[in-house]
Amino acid sequence: MVESAAAAAAGTTQGPLAGMRVVELGSLIAGPFATRILAEFGADVIKIEPPPRGANPGGDPLRTWRQLHQGTSLWWSAQARNKRCISVDLKDQRGRDIVRRLVERADVVVENMRPGALEKLGLGWDDLRAVNPSLVMVRISGFGQTGPMCSQPGFGAIAEAMGGMRYVTGDPDRPPMRANLSLGDSIAALHAVIGALMGLRHRDATGGRHTGKTGGIGQVVDVALTESVFNMMESTLMEYSAAGIVRERTGTSIPGIVPSNVYRSKGGEWVQISGNGDAIFKRLMRAIGRLDMAEAPALANNPGRMQQAVAIDAAIQSWAGLHDAEAIVQAMRSADVPCSRIYSIADIAADPQFQSRGMFEHHRLADGKPVDIPAPAPRLSATPGGTRWLGPELGAHNDEVLRELGLDGAQITALREAGVI
């Protein structure tokens, strides 16, 4: 891939994770998204993919998901950024030996195979910690490494359903809804990154690389997609266990937080207005000409507003329906009330706030076609993340990585001819 000026600049600054070595044994979304974040902030991520085999092109299936450009997913350009990609046949003993040698030098392994799959290959936790006792192994699966469902296949959509998110999403008289995104996978990936960093912190505290001592205690970070989603479910368990309340679908509003809803403008666009702070509510009501509500003692705090949520929403909608979306946004901002149009990706790309924050990196694909990818988040003042290169071709770093392991050209050629890489 062709590097942009932004990518070249990123290459001059070491990220906060520089020196961390990560082996990725994952595919599609959760595992690769976790390692993408680590790579954005300086970790050396070596992604292992299956080589071509007969009619099977090999590689991570994400390479051919969603919108393609010259046969490769545009998503891939960002998801595999900064990673060194090698092709290794894990069904071949020689391929498994390569993985073990990489693990000897690694700080972290991230995998998202079905529990037991790596054990069958001799690459499970007990096998890998035998070659590297300080290893932090992040294991991402649908239901975790234990329990009656651990061996079942699990995807992000199933995690959203079983973890409770789908039940509370949508209109009360309609089927449970999903976002047009892989939320379950992405939420699990964030938990995986947190777990990896905590595992490394413990390793270093017990005699790891940065203490000047040898060793350090490694461990398994067991990330279940279902549990990661469940971890986002706020107070639902407490409400159920203490009061028997099951939170239901409520469409665009959140009961107990009033007013916070979407309202339809004169032109049919939708606008989110969140006036649920006591002082903010007064400013909102004054801005829409409802001084009676602004000064009503019964509406001075959230418990009182909860009792009149329908009337409050009706008043705001009545006003919003008289104005176009931009006028609504400007009126709310002038009154210091949180507000936004409901953005599409086209709106995001054109928004001055995102642009001023540098949230779009401009790159070129291998054929020169321009492509924008999201800039790394969060923003670090001294050691920001960046993109050194976009998602590479399958096996692009085979020779480089294998030479680092001590293999010479003849050995690499033999492995390639045997279909191991």
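(the above was protein one; protein two follows)
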Amino acid sequence: MDFLQLAQDFELPLYVYDGEKIVEKINQLREAFADLPLKIKYAVKALSNISILKLIKSQGVGADVVSIQEAHIAIKAGFLPDEILFTPNGVSFEEIQQAVELGIHINIDNLSTLERFGNEYKNSVACCIRINPHILAGGNSKIQVGHIDSKFGISVLQMRHVLRIVEHYNINVSGLHMHTGSDILDASAFLRGAEILFENAMLFKNLKFLDFGSGFKVAYKKDDIVTDLTDLGQKLTLAYQDFCKNYGKNLEIWFEPGKYIVSESGYFLVKTNVIKQTPANIFVAVDSGLNHLIRPMFYDAYHQIINVSNPDAPLRIYNVVGYICETDTFGIDRQINEVREGDILVFKNAGAYGFMMSSNYNSRFRPAEVLVYKEKTHLIRQRETMEDILKNQILVKDF
């Protein structure tokens, strides 16, 4: 990919996505779980640009959404309602009703909503139930969502209450769901969850699918250990086959990868504004900050940073920082080819939760987005302007 040409054509900062990489990751998932009746539901929250969604939809993938707004975006991108799973947390019942009106699959993760859903719809609308398996897994405490203190899902210790509500209202339960966290390395975490999911599935006789969420680890650093999908696929297939013998029929297996599909496709391009040497460090200050890529500050996330303007220069050690008016650090003690003012730096693995978590903090504009696919370059989001910053503000004229 010609980053220098992209920088020239679209200005900086800039998000760029490699469409071929997205397709490659989808195919890797299908290959790993080839012996399972697999359905992939892309987690839209990772990257919801409608052109990215359209590309993912073209590969026969469904969508997993966490808000009614994401549901509308997915439909706008071409997903059929029946291809969308709605997995909210802590939303109003009115939002659940809106999702039912759209005709998408509903995933319920608390007892009060389940009871209200049963009272409202009885068995006329199917739903999925999200359980909390009480498994602590994931690469950061903020993305560990399946442990006993998590706000997500209905505790496996409360299944008696679930069954009482389901039986009382004759609720049509079509699926069970779980998600333990993100950046999971060990297949055993998935398999422990599978065992719990299979065990509880025996309590529901009319299921159509089991949803294992996602959380597959991607490589951020060179030689990073990642989830062994082949190993997981083999072991999960054996466990699934045993379950189906006991259950009496085959169920679909769903996964909801987001980061796994789009993370490696994304690159974030910035320009070096200032090289600042202090008694302790050399700072590379760039024309961006946590307003565009918050993951390093929010999750202590690592993104490899390369200098595409001076790739053959000697390596130097830098702290790469942003232009936001508070501590705003992208990387500490990074070895990068010598950086000069004006050089273009590229952050790798920026496809997931990069642009999606961006903001207008410090009243800065959000960057443009570009998709490169089949040797064609497409502008898929325009760079913001001052008009965008001001368009929803109302100037009071009385003072």
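Reviewer note on protein two: Residues 229-247 form the longest helix (19 residues).
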